[in-house]
Design a protein that fits this description.
One of its GO terms (molecular function) is hydrolase activity. InterPro entries: Metallo-B-lactamas, RibonucZ/Hydroxyglut_hydro. Keywords: Hydrolase. This protein is of the alpha/beta class. The chain has one domain: Metallo-beta-lactamase, Chain A, CATH 3.60.15.10. The protein is 22% helix and 26% strand. It has helices spanning 22-30, 55-61, 85-88, 108-115, 121-124, 181-186, 213-225, 248-256; strands at 3-7, 40-43, 47-49, 71-73, 102-106, 126-130, 137-139, 142-148, 159-165, 168-173, 192-198, 229-238, 261-262, 268-269. The strands form two sheets. A seven-stranded mixed β-sheet has the order 6-5-4-3-2-1-14. A seven-stranded mixed β-sheet has the order 7-8-9-10-11-12-13. Strand 9 and strand 10 form a beta hairpin. The longest helix is centred in the last third of the chain and has 13 residues, at 213-225. Bound molecules: zinc ion (ZN) (3 copies). One zinc ion (ZN) binds at residues 10-11, 78, 80-81, 175, 239.
Length: 270
């Protein structure tokens, strides 16, 4: 399984255009890994998780194309994760040759937001699957299980996705908050090989629907007690907010001390 980080920032991006905080100043000064688009990953060039407002620029900046994408999972309807106009550009008006048929997986809020644009499924070359938490979906070589996060309750709760592909297991957890006991129990003994989880406010205070580094560790420890991880599981943090954000090399040092790797835009892992 190859995973490419298209974006690793929270809703406002890093630096946030209208902000003059210390984190934004650091990002403007040091550029590179300190600059973050809105969070999204691409698996094996064909499976996208979240299609936010930065989809076009992140694909083009990384010199890849979206033509092979045939599965799109959307975690939730917050605008940084789902910007439906980026599906509108699959229509004939923008692409003369029809793109490959694609399956969109999301909850009813996601489907509602897309339906507001007024396109039929066939105009966008899309099949849609409305998720049911904890119910697995078999698509091609992937087994995809949406699990309930503690985030975006106003949009029917965000999904985190457990994805199995040829014996490897990925948990994509952004946005998440601290899991309910039901979700924790569901993840027990799941042999997760890669955890990608938000750490929105690394050192800052955060509400219950996002994580800081303390809460990230707490969630990992709880899952560890339930044998959720395979030995050697890798832990990646994503969805960073600008607020109080350290320069990348300091962030890496801090997180590596906790056995966490901070993701950055363009990071490619296998
Ligand atoms: Zn978000
Ligand atoms: Zn800022
Ligand atoms: Zn959100």
């Amino acid at each position: 399984m190859n995973i490419r980080f298209l974006g690793t920032g929270a809703a406002e991006g890093v630096p946030a255009p209208f902000c003059l905080c210390e984190g934004c100043k650091i990002a403007r000064e040091h550029q590179g890994k300190n600059v973050r688009k809105r969070s999204s990953i691409l698996i094996n060039d064909e499976f996208l998780i979240d299609i936010g407002p930065d989809f076009v620029s992140s694909i083009n900046n990384q010199d890849i194309s979206g033509e092979k994408i045939k599965i799109i999972c959307v975690t939730h309807a917050h605008f940084d994760h789902f910007y439906p106009e980026n599906l509108e550009i699959r229509s004939k008006r923008y692409v003369p040759n029809p793109p490959e048929q694609c399956t969109l997986i999301g909850n009813s809020s996601v489907m509602y937001k897309l339906n507001m644009l007024g396109y039929t499924n066939s105009a966008l070359h899309l099949d849609k699957i409305n998720i049911e938490f904890y119910r697995s979906i078999h698509l091609g070589e992937y087994l995809i299980t949406p699990i309930e996060a503690n985030h975006a309750k106003e949009y029917g709760a965000a999904c985190n996705f457990l994805i199995e592909h040829y014996g490897k297991v990925l948990l994509y957890a952004s946005d998440t908050g601290l899991y309910s006991q039901r979700t924790l129990d569901f993840l027990s003994n799941k042999n997760i090989d890669i955890l990608i989880m938000e750490c929105t406010n690394v050192l800052g205070e955060t509400g219950s629907s996002h994580l800081n580094i303390e809460m990230f560790n707490e969630q990992v420890n709880r899952l560890n007690e339930l044998n959720a991880f395979n030995r050697g599981c890798k832990f990646y943090a994503t969805h960073f907010s600008h607020s109080e954000l350290l320069e990348y090399k300091d962030l890496k040092k801090l997180m590596n001390d906790h056995n966490i790797e901070p993701a950055f835009d363009g990071l490619l892992i296998s």
